[in-house]
């Protein structure tokens, strides 16, 4: 059972119309936003999870079957564990189709991560 709570991010509309969190150099993060974003970075802090996330993000068509991305040097149950951690952190979504599970990068995950680290020019 996961102990990660799913928290909503405070949306900010940028000049380009993108919705994300304000960059840390622009505005202080709220406590809930900091919790949510730190969970995302924590999940990506594991090399196996980072590789799995990269495999999903770069896969043709924007989604990947678990059968196509599980070659990361760990057992299948460990791959499933890491994919669950990425889902719990809000980085991936999943959909079961028959016996296989397909993964996609969560719609605003990259925008949130990149937006919070954007440096003002």
In total, how many beta strands?
5
End-to-end CA span? 43 Å
Mean pLDDT value: 83
β-sheet strand percentage:
15-25%
Low-pLDDT stretches are 1-19
Radius of gyration computed on alpha carbons: 15 Å
Q: Share of helix among residues?
A: 40-55%
What is the assembly state of the chains in this entry? single chain
Shape: elongated
Major sheet attributes: 3 strands, antiparallel
Task: Characterize the structure shown.
The chain has five helices and five strands; from the N terminus they run ββααβααββα. Mean pLDDT is 83; it is low at 1-19. 42% of the residues lie in helices and 16% in strands. Helix 2 packs across helix 4. Strand 4 and strand 5 (100-105) form a beta hairpin. The protein has 121 residues and is of the alpha+beta class.
Topology:
Layout: E1 12-13, E2 19-20, H1 31-44, H2 47-58, E3 63-65, H3 66-69, H4 76-88, E4 92-97, E5 100-105, H5 109-116
Antiparallel strand pairs: 1-2, 3-5, 4-5
Helix pairs in contact: 2-4
Please sum up the structure shown.
The protein is of the alpha+beta class and 121 residues long. Helix content is 42%, strand content 16%.
Notable features of this structure?
121 residues, 42% helix, alpha+beta, three-stranded antiparallel sheet, two-stranded antiparallel ribbon, 5 helices
